[in-house]
Write a structure and sequence with these properties.
The protein has 240 residues and is an alpha/beta fold. It has 8 helices and 7 strands.
Length: 240
């Protein structure tokens, strides 16, 4: 039964999800090219809309889909999430963040159509953007009212990898809150390197914001990174 469900998920639901991405992009592409909005806002709203569509297909593939959201901060924030699957980028939409700038790896910027969307939305290539430019562009995005979404583990291949401190250093520099986000089950549904969509329970949760001022000392951002990772991993372990 598991193998049959995996085959159905991959062949039927997965193909439908790809078709959704293609048709919605084809329909919206000319409008977004002409009217990207102030600093790409319309493009980011479109990505949110597309992501909600993908989450519909994720629900169909799953054997349970649970979302729990803490009230988000009033102003812009940094969302720090664990990372186990390419589905994680879409899952952020379920947590109520609809005007975000993603900091992600460079391979996404090389995909057809996605390349246009990534640049037009103001997303950042974590591999090719110099540190000084990265900091400046993240500051500009926050000042423009965007949330910054990062996956501090940096890779889908090691779900237990430590959280790198860049996101938390940025929060400390800008004085903005960090929202920890736990994404569970996506690594079982679509692990790194696989194209098969396995049935799995998806659990998404955002936690109350963590303020940089809660941590002091020259290594405060490292302590914050460790605390956020522990909170996320403890929740995911207890959810199994």
């Amino acid at each position: 039964m598991y193998a049959l469900r995996t085959l159905f998920n991959t062949a039927i639901i997965g193909s439908s999800a790809i078709l959704w991405l293609f048709l919605s992009g084809l329909a919206a592409g000319p409008f977004l090219w002409l009217f990207p909005g102030e600093k790409g806002r319309n493009v980011r709203k479109f990505v949110y809309f597309q992501s909600r569509g993908i989450l519909f297909f994720v629900r169909l593939c799953s054997c349970g889909f649970k979302v729990s959201r803490a009230p988000r901060p009033q102003g812009p924030c940094i969302v720090a999430a664990n990372h186990a699957s390419s589905l994680d980028l879409y899952c952020v939409a379920a947590l109520g963040f609809d005007n975000v700038v993603y900091v992600t790896k460079g391979w996404v910027f090389r995909l057809p159509f996605f390349r246009f969307v990534m640049h037009a939305a103001g997303y950042l290539d974590a591999e090719k953007t110099p540190p000084e430019e990265m900091l400046a562009r993240c500051k500009a995005a926050l000042e423009n009212g965007c949330d910054i979404v990062l996956f501090p583990q940096g890779s889908r291949k090691n779900p237990q990898a430590r959280f790198k401190s860049g996101a938390f250093y940025l929060a400390e520099m800008m004085g903005v809150p960090v929202v920890p986000a736990a994404i569970g089950g996506t690594g079982e549904m679509l692990p790194a390197g696989s194209i098969r969509l396995r049935p799995a329970e998806i659990i998404l949760k955002s936690f109350p914001a963590v303020m940089p001022g809660e941590f002091t000392g020259p290594l405060a951002h490292l302590e914050m990174a460790r605390a956020v990772k522990n909170q996320i991993m403890q929740f995911l372990e207890e959810s199994k």
